[in-house]
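S.,

Sequence below, as promised.
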Amino acid sequence: MLKSRRQVSSERWAVGSFVRSLWVRLPSRRPLFVLLLAAHCSLLTISCRRDMQDQPKVIAYRESKFYKDGTGSRPLVEGTVPRGYLRQDREFYFGKKAKVGTGGTQAATAAVPGALPNSAAMYPDDIETLPITLTKEVLDRGQDRYQIFCSSCHGLTGYGDGIVARRGFNKPAPASLHKDALRQAPVGHYFDVITNGWGAMPSHASQIPVEDRWNIIAYIRALQLSQMRQEQR
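The prediction came back faster than expected:
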């Protein structure tokens, strides 16, 4: 409740009377009393500040007159890399060779008239071997992720006859993973397709982590090998 002026003045008079009585009763300790009073006043002076809610500060996405461009949000320093996104391993994170050759394979292909370009010529900077160790756990994980993200279009066996294609989304039809062009394609090409999309297929980078992409590719290679054996029979 708010106090009236009379109550405030009476409280001040009481405090003043108490101080005067101490000053009269303790003449030998007046120097100590003066020091204590000075310390108390200095503390009161130091404690005079603005409330935190009113202090000058920069709020993100708001106008700020402190910076020359007038914006509170500051741009990142050039070359800043978020934690966990350094991506130094080019083969693992991008499916690309660390050092791309200078056209040796393309020149060899062009030397034969009428020869079809092989996978190395079509995708010269894509790696051809998996950058992870192939284990049963990798294949099991790849099969699980393939059935979740890929089988709806490419089918459980990889022939492009998934439920989405059978229900009408077949112009263009999903690619069969058992075509010679895809059988010969390097694993880096598959990684690039999963990451960036290809044709009507959208990017799955936001849904499938990097390691799971390689797990899926390992399972696709095993799936292609299994169907090749059946066709040979």
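The radius of gyration is 38 Å.

Coffee later?
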